[in-house]
Backbone:
């Protein structure tokens, strides 16, 4: 599936037995963190993020502007938009597409049954074609200012979302929203069939977790050099360790066993979250 050119700089990427740790940064231009450029890039992903597979494949020179406006309106009208939750979901979408080359399975916008209804459940539903078949990537994101609060909240959410009854219901919702013309439809439906044990599903499922936070390293530098990379590495390594430790402890306390699923952790350090939200908001409204 075609996608916009890569924008984020991958400033850290480590593969562990428990999953991959990745950090992305927008980088700098003329001594300034690329806030505006990041917002512009995010808008390039709107159609793929918000539209169905059938709508995407129908885009041509005659309806490209109309379909882009539709995508912008869909994002703006969701219940999460007031809290800017959709921006976190958009960055999660971009990150896993760029880094892991995932394939979107279901647009989270289409979980809604009415305008302004809060979109619940996982924050992304993608797949990856692996050596053992199709893998389901169900993502979680927190578009926050403080990384410590983001870690606390996302750990609680993941533990809650991995309840058997919650997962079964979520898989049913996903099945109901899969576009019938999507090439991977039959295989994903087969994986999510209620008759398939979660023990089997967990072997083909992972959770990418994306957290944003305001970074002292990002705000205190003006170029991507060794000094910046060393400073940001100290920040992110603490965050990775805390998230994985807290999540493992919380899951075992809740269910009495170790976490049975692979977790990929993606961090996006920001210079100024408020400024980024303001720019994203302007770009999104302009597209409508």
Residues:
């Amino acid at each position: 599936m075609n996608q916009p050119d890569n924008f984020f700089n991958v400033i850290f990427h480590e593969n562990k037995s428990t999953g991959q740790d990745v950090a992305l940064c927008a980088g700098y231009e003329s001594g300034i963190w690329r806030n505006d450029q990041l917002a512009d890039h995010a808008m390039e992903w709107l159609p793929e993020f918000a539209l169905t597979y059938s709508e995407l494949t129908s885009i041509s020179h005659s309806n490209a502007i109309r379909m882009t406006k539709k995508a912008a309106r869909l994002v703006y009208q969701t219940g999460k938009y007031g809290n800017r939750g959709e921006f976190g979901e958009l960055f999660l979408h971009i990150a896993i597409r760029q880094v892991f080359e995932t394939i979107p399975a279901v647009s989270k916008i289409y979980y809604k049954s009415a305008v302004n209804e809060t979109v619940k459940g996982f924050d992304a539903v993608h797949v990856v074609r692996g050596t053992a078949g199709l893998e389901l990537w169900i993502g979680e994101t927190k578009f926050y200012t403080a990384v410590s609060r983001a870690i606390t909240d996302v750990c609680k959410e993941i533990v809650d979302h991995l309840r058997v009854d919650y997962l079964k219901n979520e898989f049913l919702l996903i099945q109901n929203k899969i576009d019938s013309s999507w090439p991977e439809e039959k295989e994903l439906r087969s994986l999510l069939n209620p008759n398939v044990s979660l023990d089997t599903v967990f072997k083909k499922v992972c959770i990418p977790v994306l957290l944003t936070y305001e970074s002292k390293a990002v705000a205190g530098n003006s170029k991507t050099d060794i000094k910046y990379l060393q400073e940001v590495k100290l920040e992110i390594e603490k965050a990775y360790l805390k998230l994985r430790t807290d999540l493992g402890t919380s899951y075992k306390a809740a269910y009495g066993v170790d976490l049975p699923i692979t977790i990929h952790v993606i961090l996006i350090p920001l210079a100024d979250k408020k400024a980024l939200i303001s720019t994203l908001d302007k770009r999104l409204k302009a597209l409508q």
Remarks:
- Residues 190 and 285 are 40 Å apart (CA to CA).
- Strands lie at 9-16, 19-25, 28-29, 32-33, 103-106, 124-130, 133-143, 205-214, 262-270.
- Residues 9-287 form one domain.
- The first helix runs from residue 35 to 44.
